[in-house]
Design a protein that fits this description.
The complex is a heterodimer of chains A (431) and B (259). By secondary structure, chain A is mainly alpha-helical. Chain A is built from 15 helices and 4 strands. Chain A has 2 domains: 12-48 and 194-428, no CATH class; 69-182, Periplasmic binding protein-like II (D-Maltodextrin-Binding Protein, domain 2, 3-Layer(aba) Sandwich), CATH 3.40.190.10. Chain B has helices at 53-60, 82-88, 104-114, 119-132, 148-160, 178-193, 205-211, 229-236, 241-258; strands spanning 8-21, 25-38, 42-46, 68-73, 76-77, 89-93, 166-170, 197-202, 214-219, 222-227. Chain B starts with 7 loop residues before the first strand and ends with a helix. The chains are: A mainly alpha (431), B alpha/beta (259).
Chain lengths: 431, 259
Amino acid sequence: MSSAPRDAPGAGVLRAAFAVARKELGESFRDRQTLLYTFVLPLCMYPAMFWIMVQGVLVVQGQKQARDVTVGVVAAAETAELAVEQLALDEEGRGRIEVVALDPETPRDADTIAELIEREEADALLFLPADRSEDDPAALFFDSTSSQSETARGRVVSALEGWTEELRAEAAGARELDPEVLEPILIQTRKINPSKDDGALVLSLLLPILLVVMCVLGAFFPAVDLTAGEKERQTAETTLLLPIPRLGLHLGKIFAVCATSMIAATLNLLALGLSAGHLLGQLAGLGDGAPKVELPLGALISIAPLAALFAFFVSAVLTGVASLAASFKEGQALLGPVQMLFMLPAMATNLPGMELTATTAWIPVVNVSLAFRGLLVGSASAGPLLLCAFSLTVAALLAIWFSVRLLSSEEVSLSSETISMTRILRILRPR
Amino acid sequence: MTDPTNTSAIRAEGLAKTFHDPQRGVVEAVKGVDLDCHKGEIFGLLGPNGAGKTTTLRMLSTILAPTAGRALIDGVDVAEDPLEVRRRLGFLSGSTGLYPRLTGRETLRYFGRLHGLEGERLEAAIARAFDAFDLHAFGDGRCEALSTGQKQRVSIARAVLHDPPVLILDEPTTGLDIMASSDMIQFIESRREAGTCVLFSTHILSEAERLCDRIGIVYDGRMLAAGSLDELRAMTSKEWLEEIFRELVQRADAGEGAA
């Protein structure tokens, strides 16, 4: 089958494209799925989900701390009494640590200990030898698969820290030594970066992936709706009769998909950036060392041109691929694997050591994600960013060519069945 | 350029269309159709399903590119200047093809703007269309919520909003109830009076008999005969259109068999 008649491109192409894009956008925003992914998710659902998640974590943490735990102490009577005193010090503002004195002769073998914990006589077992020799150190046994046992472990370790210090000082004093020498290499760690850099790091792990995912999700439904959906609604013929150049018509559709994609990505990034600061602050307890998350406006503005190029690339690819389907359902099925081709490389950029270099700047998807990360943490340099912009421009132009070529084909625009790979190759073959 | 002395509004010479069908291979849907329709004339393309009527109309309206042959709409070549052709014609099919999420008024405004109507001219044209096709009761509701007859009225208004000299209708009464079908027939007759060339396809013989100044019988991708009802009677020595149609089809089949 030959291609549809071609109109000479002229000044009217862009004007026509904008007219079509405006109409398609208006129609898209009357579509529930597009509205959901573009507006409802970022503005309502994400902040709500994050809030619920954070509140949930806070409640669970609070409940864990408020929980009473039972610790079995295997020690001679005198040592056991000391242990009870020390463990009682940890109870302020938390649940009770009930200490059960067990037979000092309890064997230290795994089966016996597991059986004791299984019988819920204790959530954790603390073995405290009387002479505290190196040959027979103190030991704490717990079940890592049990939340109760895990909580008991944490509480015991925290409670015995002070006692350990006291004993060390006592031992050093008895030998007339400075307690410090009993810990010959004392490493003190000091953070030199401001806590807002920690926040930027947290956002740099989230926002670049969100940018890619939301560009794809934002374009997904409009791309299917304006191509396969149009065939299903039997309006493709009407659209082909519009008195505008065909190039303008096809570009208009890509513009509309791209606009939705950009709106979805922008709203999501803003919503997440704004809610993350508040909610992560709550989660970290707002202590001095907690990451301080601020809306990274500078990085968002800096990434905008690259994000726009990426949105064009994504929109053109999805529009072209969706045009091969004959119905909305088939369009969704076709785009499923395609969206994974965008999302997986974006997720891979969270691997350690990945950064924007002269090499990674050439790889679409990976480059925009790494560029955004670089801008968020302040490590991006001009050279790779320019390469990234060039690469994305080339990718977007190629994708637009691919999409327009497919949409211009009679086989694609009017077909009542999904186009096979052989036919796609024939359509894309140079004329 | 259009020749003012030439009254031909649609002219086709040897128009052909070949498809590559994945199951059937190469399919010759239209095998060289000649056609000449004049201003103020209603020309009916009559033929069974699959005869090539829709493909012919789609080529004339620039939706499909002809594989061979030539076609002029109001003097403009469909292959050389398809954009100008689309400006000069109104196209309507039985499926209406309305954008479901737009209202009738928005549909008219969209098409009007793309046809170069702006501001007061556009609003005046929409108001005329609302009056002419009685769209006031439902024209501001979304098209997806309209009945088939209401959709068809919005669709007609869309097709003639820019007052095209040529109107192409592909089985326009398909799926319509008696009242809506009757409205459509009245509309087609009114366009003849307005000097518009109307080319429409149908497989309903009574419609063709009632409306058409001339009829073209299409079968297996070919135009078997074209002329007024009297001319077709003379060609076949048959009285009724149904008999004429059968006679021409039998002759065509016999000719193929002999060949």
